[in-house]
Amino acid sequence: MKHVLITGATSGIGQSLALSYASAGHHVYACGRNEEKLTALVRQYENITPLSFDITDKTQVKAACANINEIDIVILNAGDCLYMDDPLHFDSERFEFIINTNLVSMGAMLEQLLPKLAPTNRQNTENPQLVFISSSASLLPFPKAQAYGASKAGVDYLANSLALDLAKHRIDVCLVHPGFIKTPLTDKNTFDMPFLMSSEEAADRIIEGITKRKRYLQFPKRLTVFLHLLSSLPARCWQSFASKRLS
Fold it and tell me: Which CATH number fits domain 3-245: 3.40.140.10, 3.90.228.20, 3.40.50.720, 3.40.720.10?
């Protein structure tokens, strides 16, 4: 049995991950703000410990993590998405909210959880794992996604940089780039979402990658590989296409 902490566990990918790990007999720390949804998870599996707090509030993060003694896997999944509708009237409050929710909040989580992941403080001899759920949106600039894309690009750099520094401490880092996943966030989208996957299928892919100790995980590859190819084109080519077809 492993101890798995998941942020954003009350909906979407996070909820599917929590249920999958719990059904496999692991102890899950399910983190979220919605106490009612957390209680519903506990009703399904007694091996789920609910942690209700706001990830953007350092005081709440510290209090929620205080009684956690050992973790094998931390999955930083919580996030939000709001689009910037008018570039000439840039909404700084919306931008700040998304950056804080998707990126800055990870600093508070890491401050509390990295010492608990350290092998010197653990009984399990396997390397602990730190997983960042980013987005394939960080691979290319998309219209109206200045806040969301910037936050996920920051998550990418944070994960890749920490992977270098944590290697000597025997903490394995995995960066995850999902494509379009059917969640309450994507339900609000009004544009086409090719290769849309369920959150359950996404959770299965992520758990498989974690089990195999993947350093980088992307899916569905039909989409992410195509985005990687597009990112190698001259910027003007993508700008012309995106401004005409995606705006």
Answer: 3.40.50.720
